[in-house]
Request: fold
Amino acid sequence: MEPRFNLNDSELGAKIGKRFANTSLAIMQSTLTKSTINLVELRASQINGCGFCTDAHAKDLAAAGEPAVRINLVAAWRESTVFTPAEQAALALAEQGTRLADGHQGVSDETWAQVRKHYDDDQIAALVYLVAMINAANRIGVILHMKGGAYQPGTFDSTAD
Reply:
């Protein structure tokens, strides 16, 4: 199945896309590690079933030197020993922030306490926006039928200005 629509072919779509990319760039310029950012993006993308984003973030992690065991265990991070407590807090935030309809309270106080323990205010701001942005990107990818498989690592490293 081919993608349904190219947002960048529309003047308004390209204008909004540039703003979207600039928000993502600000997150990338935060003090969150690139690994943490991609782990969060990968986990949310897996949950949302976005093939394009799952492909992109898994490949970006691999290209950055992440061991295959860490990439492969993102979906089962609770049952693994390869993630730091800070990464576990970020992954829990990603899951609970993505599965809002599955939990009556959204992000639990326990998860929030772990996030507060491991990240400073600027990093928390980046994490909250990161979860929101990847969920938005996943929805775009799924709505437009953007398939995984063809992504080239680093494609999004310089998409904003």
User: Anything to note?
Assistant: The chain has one domain: 16-143.
